[in-house]
Amino acid sequence: VPAKPQEKEKAKQPSSPPLPRQNAKITPPSPPRVICDKSGQIQLSRVGFLGEGGFARVYEVKEFSGARLACKVITKSSLKTKKAKTKVRREVVNRHSSDLFQLYAEIKIHRFLEHPNIVRFQECFEDNDNVYMTLELCPSGSLMDMLRRRRRFTEPEARFFMVQLMGACHYMHTHQVIHRDLKLGNLFLDANMNVKVGDFGLAALIENPGERKKTICGTPNYIAPEVLFDTANGHSFEVDTWSIGVILYTLVVGRPPFQTSEVKDIYKRIRDNAYDFPAERAISTGAQNLIQQILTPDPSLRPSLHEIIDHAFFVSGLVPSYIPTSAHDAPPDFR
Ligand code: ADP
Fold first, then answer.
1. What is the Å distance from ligand 1's center to 70 Cα?
2. Helical (H) or strand (E) element with 189
3. In this structure, what are the phi and psi dihedrals at residue 189, rounded to the nearest 5 degrees?
4. What is the pTM for the complete model shown?
5. ipTM of this predicted complex?
């Protein structure tokens, strides 16, 4: 099945955090110190580097007012256009294979989403070399960075992050958007430890009710079985629910459920629904039961976001009203 280059690249990577581009022969030059749009109305000073993803580099920038933002920079020459593709067979795949098309979709979708738990999209502009997207700055990194320091989270912390993530996801789904790449590396944190869902680079808009998406995409550890194994039928909103189950498992266990060193073995485990709860982790029965329900292979039998939030794991367990910033390095005491 033909996959977009970005997706293929992601599919090769067994681990979930975003990795630097692997097929770039030369690192593109840094954007200018002062980034301006063509009309000169926007002026941003570049103050730091935040990270690199599939086809973008992200910098911290300062507006004239002193406000700080994140600025996603996509070098135009790195964008593969439809013409550059030779091996793609069908027009529909061809269309989706264009990085330019994907970037257009990312901007189109992200710019209209406004929710306290979604990274705010500010504006989009270009100069001769790059396309720029300014975004709300998330200076505290992602939940992936935090998990690396903490190794795993307490169940009250997991409930807090999950409630915010599901709020964002419910908002996206009611606006006909499937994120399709929910994972710890795309869940950023603001200064008050609130979750901000980011990276709409693989998001899809469902424009007609009942429409099914056919493109294979996602990040191996988090990808739903129907994306991999029911390509004829396609997939829809339930792929995000699956990823939410993988995220909950990863938060409380410390690693994703289907993780192995080989991507093909991850896919095999996803197909066989083969995962377990390590005894030494003492995961509560409520958490185990909820994870098992969410990781239901048949998407039509997977619980809805409402059913998840009504589960005993949330209803009978402590949901903290906030998480102290000390949680970046040590488990908080919620007594
Ligand atoms: P891509 O779409 O190319 O995968 P990402 O959106 O994942 O790029 O961003 C790449 C990296 O840049 C992230 O892993 C993160 O470290 C950093 N980053 C992205 N958005 C923000 C933001 N709003 N605030 C702070 N850092 C960010």
1. 8
2. strand 187-189
3. -125, 140
4. 0.88
5. 0.96
